[in-house]
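step=predict obj=General secretion pathway protein F n=400
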Amino acid sequence: MMRFRYLVQDPQGARRRGTLEAGDARQARQLLREQGLLIIAVRAVRLQWNSRLRPVRLGATQLAIITRQLATLLRASMPLSDALLAVASQSEDRQASKLMGAVNEQIAQGRTLADALGHYPQAFPAVYRATVAAAERSGHLSSVFERLADHGEREQSLRQKVQLAMVYPLILFLVSLLVVGFLLGYVVPDVVQAFARDQAQLPYATLLLIALSEFTGHFGLLIIMTVLCCVVAVRWALRKPARRRRWDALALRIPLWGEFIRASNAARFVATLATLGRSGVPLVEAMRIGAVVTSNLALRERLIRAAEELAEGSSLASSLTRCAALPPLTLHMIASGERAGEVNTMLERAADLQEKQLSSRISLLVSLCEPAMLLLMGAIVLFIVLAILLPILNLNQLVT
């Protein structure tokens, strides 16, 4: 429910002011007329928490759940305002509930749903708002919300796969680093202390191990602080678009990793383009929005140039081919769809193909990283064991 402030005139001619609660402005006026009052002005009261909602972010999972609920309610022929209020009341997250209530308030003031969502760009991305605007123009809001929910769920699944591919090798590397650091800092010094008195007769492996152990003990904390400072400095430097662009272009040239970045961004772009095209968004606008969702700035600039070529009259397949941002098989499927007049259908098939290829690349990357880390750890442990055992074997030979 919303709160309205009113100014009315009663049958005796006296003016009265007050507030009431109603679902929208029309219902508020109806309630006042039923009391025999002459309406002079009715204005919605802007809620205090509405101004605090602008920085609110909705997670991909939470946005997909809200979208799915709206699609279900609208499919059941429930009015949009009632559907928004129902989703707000069902949401377990307080900020999300207030957000949906604020969107309903914007609609009650006469704005379209796309305009209402535009007041909260951090909660509803550009792809979401553009799709809703196209759905309002076509009048197929419920089906488009279902398509948006499917798109959000696919995006979340794709994001989780990419995060898994990045996090798993990183965890293995950090654990290996911690184990080696613990061995060099605490275990090795006690073991090799007995051999440190006569270093001239020690094997080179043992001397190197002692040097590494002493270096870790004296400078280990300094190394950790230096690495952290470098990470912070790199993140700060990449905030500037020019440096970020050069960094992203360099990442695309790294073997295996560059192909993985290209595949993940291509999957996200094609899936977004398919969703927007099927929802009735013009192709040029869909290209520009799809380019924005790509995380790599070098690929984003190429796709924006392709959208400009498309706006100048070039075909979709030729503009995407010249930008060299998508795999050849995807470009071939898009060209076939253009010739057959089924671009949206072929984009959906290309999106499914890209997601399957990305899943296979992620599996390959994870399967390669795991044995590589195990081999690296095995080599380090073997070096430590040999460096400790070689002096002991030499002592046994001298005794015999």
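step=describe
Residues 343-399 form the longest helix (57 residues).
step=end
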